[in-house]
Design goal:
Structural class: alpha+beta
Number of domains: 5
CATH architecture of the largest domain: 2-Layer Sandwich
Number of strands: 24
Strand content: 25-35%
Shape: elongated
Largest sheet: 7 strands, antiparallel
Strand order of the largest sheet: 6-11-3-4-10-7-8
Number of helices: 11
CATH class of the largest domain: Alpha Beta
Amino acid sequence: MGITISDRDALSELVAGTDEALMEKFLETMELSDEEINKGLTAALAGGDVIPVVKVTATSGDGIPELLDLIVNSFPSPLDVSGEPSDGKKVKYDASAPLAAYVFKTIADPFVGKLSFVKVITGSLGAKTEPTNSRTGEVERFGKLLALKGKKQEDLTEAFAGDIIAITKLDASTGDALCAAGNSAGFDPIIFPVPCFFQAVAAKGKGDEAKISGAIQKILDEDKTLNYVNNTETRQRVLGGLGDQHLDVTINKMKNKFGVDVELLAPIIAYRETVRKKVTGIEGKHKKQSGGAGQFGVVIMDFEPHTEDELVFEEKVVGGSVPKQFFPAVEKGLRESILHGAVAGYPVVRLKATLTDGKYHPVDSKEIAFVQAARLAFKAGMKEASPCLLEPILSMKILVGSENTGDVMGIVNKRRGAVLGTNPVDGGMTEIEAEMPQAETSDFALVILQMTKGLGSFTQEFARYQELPQTLEADVIANAPKFKDEE
């Protein structure tokens, strides 16, 4: 609503629309008293019809008294609102009912420790209360109850319905409900934006490497819009947020609050490899004689493309050329080999391997010999079976203003993506369903934020692997050795 608090006539007209009696009074006198304005403004705030905006400055404190006066005089009492949403119902504030409280924010304080902000919905919460966490079913124990007044913290002995307090050393997480024993009340969760911008986190100093996970976990307790994955395949810690500024603020917080200095790097993409044609009669021969007992094993194998991502192993040996007791060793050698393909060292998928023939020695043939023979056959077969790289494709839902729909669809197409459809959304928005290679999405969040002036958003999830165009293979292969060496 484009008015200012100082525009008394406009404010009077606005709040008069919230109540018939106030409207009649305003039409008769064209003015309302301070008490009547506050009454109407409280009703408008409670109904969500008005969103107040107060100008303040952190350096001088100008505007803070006006903001506090607005909160005291005009914000609705908890007893005057419909209550907190819970499974399609509203839980009204009631100090006489059993305890039900909601953890709505968490702060990791480097001095105090974990500080949980809690709103008491029903009943009371005392310093010696042992509430139950409705999510875990566990009894929660905590340190102190605190009333926060700016930087000042005052100890409390008890809090009642409608109070907002802080609790130290509480195990509960943001979104958890604290209830009296036997009361399993839960509240509708806060819907947080989904991370869409990802960067790898690496320590700047050797001593900080072991501290990263602990610091990030504390940050995650504070900020539920972050995501963190320790990717064992790429050996990177990947941090996801809502944009580059979001992640910059996060790593600065890690340094200033927890003393962990890190940098952001481009995440490694987990490509895959496969074969495009069938090859037959591929031999793998392992023979070793070292003075003592020797090693001998020969396998003849066929390799071909398959629809399943997992390795499919079959044996069609006739005549006992490879005894059955060595079949598991052959499969073991193949499963160890598919961890690194022949193109760039990425895992091999969609492969079928068939053992058709081989040779063994009654004395020198051992399990290790056939493991090594299978590895040699795999290496030779991959080179002949027209290997190629597969890249991960992401399924995306992009929400933008209708005026930006055409431009965003153009960007998707330029980035080797495909638009699958569009759906109109209330509020003049459009949801674009699309697919795009992961390699093309590294800065997509920044482009969407810039193009839509911060109003656009999107979600993404892995869809499938798809063959990488041969024109792009050279760049991927050139970057792969670093990843392969780290393995």
